[in-house]
Amino acid sequence: MFYTIGEMAQKLNVAPSTLRYYDKEGLLPFVERSSGGIRMFKDEDMEWLRMLGCLKKAGMPLREIRSFMELSRQGDDTIDQRLELIERQRKSVLEQQKQLEDTLLMLDYKQWYYQTAQTVGTCAVHDTLPLDRVPERFRPLKEEWKAEE
């Protein structure tokens, strides 16, 4: 069964323009075209497109995605190179995740900070707030962030 670009985009929950862009960038060499030049996607293209989307969401640059796709098409002789690309991107995602966790912790702290200040009507409450009244997960950070407030 074949799908139009709109049908495949809907299945993947992306805009058709995203698939057109991927095609323009040479990331969809597997996609067949009708005699009139219309892209015709098959069910088996779905796995490739999902992988492409995953790598894109993971922040992999297009040139590396293109390289990964080319290596995949070359077969088992390129397993080591593909694994290296995936491991490098996984490390990058873990670093991004750590940065986001740090950012979320700061936002959580500031939310607690301002909710506490709102309750008593002043941010000055934090100047005299005993450490045991600070949520435990914020205690190591309170002194560090206090100077920034």
Describe what you observe in this structure.
The protein is mainly alpha-helical and 149 residues long. The protein has 2 domains: 2-74, Multidrug-efflux Transporter Regulator, Chain: A, Domain 2, CATH 1.10.1660.10; 97-146. 65% of the residues lie in helices and 5% in strands. It has 7 helices and 3 strands; from the N terminus they run E-H-H-E-E-H-H-H-H-H. The protein has helices at residues 5-12, 16-24, 45-57, 62-74, 79-120, 125-128, 139-146, and strands at residues 2-3, 32-33, 39-42. It has a 3-stranded antiparallel sheet. A hairpin with a 5-residue loop joins strand 2 and strand 3 (39-42). Helix 1 packs across helix 2 and helix 4 packs antiparallel against helix 5. The chain starts with a strand and ends with a helix.
Concise summary:
With 149 residues, the protein is mostly helical. The chain has 7 helices and 3 strands. α1 (5-12) crosses α2.
Short descriptors:
single chain, 149 residues, Multidrug-efflux Transporter Regulator, Chain: A, Domain 2, 7 helices, 5% strand
What amount of the residues lies in strands? 5-15%
**Gap between N and C termini:** 61 Å
The chain-level mean pLDDT equals 91
SS element count, helices: 7
Q: Provide the number of structural domains.
A: 2
Largest sheet: 3 strands, antiparallel
Classify the helix fraction into a percent range. 55-70%
Rg, Cα atoms, Å: 24 Å
- What top-tier CATH class of the largest domain fits best? Mainly Alpha
Order of helices and strands: EHHEEHHHHH
CATH architectural name of the largest domain: Orthogonal Bundle
Spans of at least 5 consecutive residues whose pLDDT stays below 50 are none
Total number of beta strands = 3
Q: Using the coordinates shown, work out and report the CATH topology of the largest domain.
A: Multidrug-efflux Transporter Regulator, Chain: A, Domain 2
Order of neighbouring strands in the sheet with most strands: 1-3-2
Q: What is the general shape?
A: elongated
- The structure class reads mainly alpha
